[in-house]
Amino acid sequence: MKKISILSILVLVVFGSFFSCQPKDNKAPNIYFSSEVETSQDWVLQEYYELPSATASDNVDGDVTDKITLSNDLIFYELRSDSIPGQTVYKCENKIKNGTKGFVGKAGKYAIVYSVTDKASNKGSKTLNVNVLNSLNNWSVNSSGVKINYLVKRKYINGDQLRIGGVYTDTNQEDEYTWEDGYANVNGKPVTTTFAPDKAINYRIKISKIANIGGLAMYVDFNRYSRAINFADYETGVIQEMSKIGGVYVKTDFVYYVAQVSGINEYNPEIKSFTVTYQIERWKEDDNGSKIVDGRTWSLDRTCTYQESFIPE
Fold first, then answer.
1. Which one is predicted more confidently, 222 or 258?
2. Class of the 24-133 domain?
3. What is the pTM of this model?
4. 250-256, long-range: CB within 8 Å, 24+ apart, which pairs?
5. Taking CA 105 as the corner, what is the angle to CA 103 and CA 109, rounded to the nearest 5 degrees?
6. Which among 134, 231, 243, 271 would be 20 to 30 A from 69, CA to CA?
7. How far apart are CA 125 and CA 54, in angstroms?
8. Residue 267: C-alpha distances to residues 226, 276, 279 (Å)
9. 3-state SS class at 82
């Protein structure tokens, strides 16, 4: 019995020494893309893409591809099976994974990190950089990323004189702006504006300075198959704005809306200019009004219509 115990101890010592001499696994798994995959890519907003599928291997665990996870807030949408042609319905793919495919849902710069961890807790990673852009991004900024200034040319069509933020909409009324050959000037210097491509809808822009009046804004859609321009939505696409007093927007006796009307609404892709015809609506507070804003009722009081062209400076 004593011999067996001594033998058992000797066996344990030998095996323990053997395993303790084995090198510790401190090598992270490797992640691979195929040779055709570029790790920096430009994507177009709302277009269909498939995230590159990666493989992973570990020096001890072998193939660990099935353990790859992706970390990022990139939004993908996929077509629903009951989608109707012309009335496409999307559903959100909340969590991206290896090989996820769908319509990319939001503009921005994304660092998509592919990660995998082996049994020894060694972690390997590889990053795919994706820049999602609105197709009109190069209308807004130049190749250096600097905002493009647009000269503003305005043509008064008809309607009531409106005074918003100290500026009259009727060009015949004296105010701080002068109009030389239709172009806006202040103290002899041309007035310019910029616009921002929408981050969710491709070929949509937000013009945040209407009639050279900061605060009033509208969203317009450029038709990719023609040169037509349309407002995003008559009811919900326009922006309601309060008056600015002392640098702060406050509730007043009037609210203003912008609405597209018939006229020239088109763009020129060759010189990156565009023209819209629209109407500013002034609504006054009225207990019997038809529009509800901030829990108050309003009725249409006055309108002013004109055409405005935006030409790169």
1. 222
2. mainly beta
3. 0.75
4. 251/294, 251/296, 253/284, 253/285, 254/282, 254/283, 254/284, 254/285, 254/301, 255/282, 255/283, 255/293, 255/298, 256/162, 256/164, 256/216, 256/280, 256/281, 256/282, 256/283
5. 115
6. 134
7. 11
8. 9, 9, 19
9. coil
Q: What is the pLDDT, as a whole number, of residue 100? A: 83
**Contact assessment for residue 214 and residue 208, using Cβ atoms and an 8 Å cutoff:** yes
Q: What percent of the chain has pLDDT over 90?
A: 29
Q: Could you please report the per-residue DSSP string of 92-144?
A: EE-S--TT-EEEE---EEEEEEEEEE-TT--EEEEEEEEEEE-TTHHHHB-TT
Q: Are 172 and 158 in contact (CB under 8 A)?
A: no
The position carrying tokens 């033998």 is: 7
The SS3 of residue 204 is strand
- The 10 Å Cβ neighbour count of residue 138 is 13
CA 81-84-88 angle, 5° bins = 85
Q: What is d(CA 46, CA 76) in angstroms, rounded to the nearest whole number?
A: 9
The residue whose two tokens read 């918003």 is 164
Domain boundaries defined on the chain: 24-133, 139-312
Reading the block at residue 178, the tokens are: 């002068």
Higher pLDDT, 78 or 165: 78
Asked if 193 and 207 count as a contact pair (C-beta separation under 8 A), the reply is: yes
DSSP secondary structure code for residue 241 in this structure: B
Exposure b/e, 13-49, CB count within 10 A at least 16 = b: eeeeeeeeeeeeeeebbebeeeeeeeeeeebebbeeb
- Retrieve residue 37's tokens: 């995959």
Q: Which of 72, 199, 81, 197 is nearest to 130 (CA)?
A: 72
